Amino acid sequence: MPEPTRRSLPTDLVPPPSLRAGVALMWEVAPAVTAVLAIIYVVLGLVPAAAMLASGQVVAAISAAADAGGGLTSPEGRRLLDAILVLSAVFVAGPVLHAVTGAFREGYRMAVYFEVEQRAMAAALAPPLLDHLEHPGSRQLLELATHRNWPNMAAFAGDVMVTISNRVTAVTSAMLVARFDPRVAIGLVVVWSAIGYRRRRRMGTALTAGAVRSRRPQYYRQLALHRGTAAELRVFGLAPWIMGRFEEGWRDAMGEVWRTRRSKRMEMAVVAAVIVLANAIAFALVARAATSGRLDAEELTVVGSAMLALAQLGLPTKQDRGVAEGATVVPALLELERVSAVEVARARSATSAATVDPTGRPRHEIRFEAVVFRYPTRDEPVLDGLDLVIPAGRSLAVVGANGAGKTTLVKLLARLHDPTSGTITVDGLDLASFEPAAWQRQVAAIFQDFTRFELSAADNVGFGGLRRAGIVEALDRAAERAGALDLITGLPRGWDTVVSRRFEAGTELSGGQWQRLALARALMAVEAGADVLVLDEPTANLDVRGEVELFDRFLEVTQGCTTILISHRFSTVRRADRIAVVEAGRVCEQGTHDELVCAGGRYAAMFALQADRYRSGRPGLPVEG
Amino acid sequence: MSGDVGAFLAGDGVRGRWRSVVVMGTAAFRADRWRSVTALVLDTVAGFSGPLFAIALGWLVDSVVAGPGIDAAGPGATAAVVILGLAVAIHMALGSLSWQLRAVVEEKTAHNVECHVVELVTGLVGTAHHEQPEHLRRVERLMWDNWLIAMSVPALVASAEVVLRLILTVIVLAGVDRRLLVLPLFGLPLLVAGAWAERIRLEALDRRADNGRRADYLFDLATQAAPAKEMRIFGLGPELLARHRREGEMLARDERVHRLKGAGLIAVGRIVFAVGYAAAVVVVAARVTRGEASVGQLVLTLSLAGQVMGQDHGRRYRPAGHRCRRLAPAHNGGIPRADALRSAGS
Question: Predicted ipTM?
Fold first, then answer.
């Protein structure tokens, strides 16, 4: 097996915000909808200018009607009514179009939000190995790209549209002012744009800084609210401590945001002076033109309204914040996708060019030779020169103290990680000869922290073999072999029952019931063609008797398969064909139960100790190496 | 306008809404006293800038109609110009300053809401509440929408500003013609439509809470380290992505549908109000043609119309609940009482 590049991912991968990247993503999600919405919002941006011009027309018409006399019934009066009708139409058209478009915009921005999630999920799922998910740098990117409580991509998509509209309004207002005096228009645009730009830039910087720092308080909040930690929180009275850390972390994160966002006093004074000065000059020029007769009532109405509208350029809006938030999300997503692609390429480069179909393997054995493995974030190796042979079609138990490297061994076997050095072969073929995904289908593993899918019971079992998940007979068979069929038939809606109370009409299962479902999932994988079965201590929270029963049942129903039982209890695996004792990352003894007991080594000592404890009525005591 | 006030009316009865106003006001005040009060004062003062601008523009137009030359226009023109500049400057400076203050108040209020909920949840005896969908729904709403709750504080301030501006508008218009006092009646359908649309939105959010939660759960399965082993071993990636996509499409479709219903209602309300305002313009125009009112008063009416109808693009920061969260509605001021959470969790 070629040695993979054990490149460590950098811990700080936060890319700078990019508005362009965000807009590009919106386009990718739905080019047609994006274009149509953009056009509509451009039109909406034109509506205020249209309203100003229509108001001007009403003022012009009223002057003519007043001069002509005869009220609204005269021809001038009817023209006035026509002008009012046009103005009313503009008044109605804008808000109605805005309301209806807004409805489509909500669906659209939700679609953009889900697309970000989809791409983040795809990026997380794509690498066949797990390095990226266990690395703080890529975890940070994942959180930034999809943060639930900070940058909000959904707001971004909608706010970009409204911002387009606001900019069009500003431009058309500037054009209306320019009809009166281009210098005033240019001056106001420059002043308001500069103020607005500076404020938005500062907001973006503050959001990025805050998003990174908010991870820690969010973690404490999660600890406080998660059901998995609820019991310990109460037993150990940790709530006040967690609240304190949450508060402290939040103040640290927000302190950074506030510092970055806060305007300096001098800057505020300068901005205020500029605002007053710009307005004074602009309105003085308007007044001079109006009183000298260069600007009539109609033009004055239009120019005055346009100057007020133009001032919006310099004001902060809620859309500014949404845009600034979204601009931090997409670069993080793109960086995450880049990291994911690198990890995929790394796994591919570690795989032989000419791959072999692993279906039906192992036929003879799986062999670990001088395998060393070190996690990217740790210096000490977990496996340190491990040699082990797993005979095909037989059962092997791997026992050892907690932290001996048993689970890591299983991860390497399933090619969730590649060894740092040494080789793993299947029937003499390097594990790297197989496509990682193809080999992973050959392995059915239930880990100590097996997933309790908060979905239907059918999903919990069917996920073991998706190709056969729709066949009820296959599900029934797997459940029956795992001793879970009675459990399923006893559920309110049978296979369709959602096994989580978090969902409507859902139900909750006990620990033992979950284990039977997990076992059924592994057996479903066998139905679907998996040849290697692994039980990696899913029984850790059972007592010794329960674990023995489960292991025995497992060995019974998987006879003829290559099965591996992992346990830190030496006294529960005696029925396995062979037993390997792992200590400090190596196999220190192996053989049958009887052989190991006769040898009088580590296994014999630990077996005797645990058996004594069991006989003395203290079987639950943990046994460490 | 309809959004803020409509959201206020759409809740669990007016009494409950008023209670929410009190609770939210208190929450903001506790979060940051001087910023809350200062923002309220600034926004109230800024609320005068629109009508002030319209009045000054009317004066300036009247002085222009009176004839060219500063002498003909008189001191009224100078005063009008000064007020116009002042109105825009007030609008800009106070709006900008108030935004900064409100942002901090929002953030602190959101945090206080979070702390409040965390304290309530961790204070519950036992862990059974974690298995209660109703409890989880309440907590999720609050935690995921704490921003919306916090933002409802400035939304209330903005609503107060809108109401103030409406009152000022009606007073100013009544100065032109007393019949224009009936104009607010044309705004009632818009308020009712806003409340109705908000109710539709809240019901839709409740209806699809499970779908949103499931989408979140699928996302977590795909991206967390613990389930990643099984995701790969059983080849579940494509299945998770497909399910997540289906949930997302359903949620986006549902969002479009219920928003369209709401938009239809609001559009009807807007049309009724526009008809009322057009009638007001006709009334003033008729008076101008009869020489009973000035052109400046018509300009004043038009300018106010633009502002009230939202056509002036004086869209200052309006922090009403616009941030999209897939699950939880922002019942303005929806901070639960401890007993409510406890009863849901028991």
Answer: 0.83
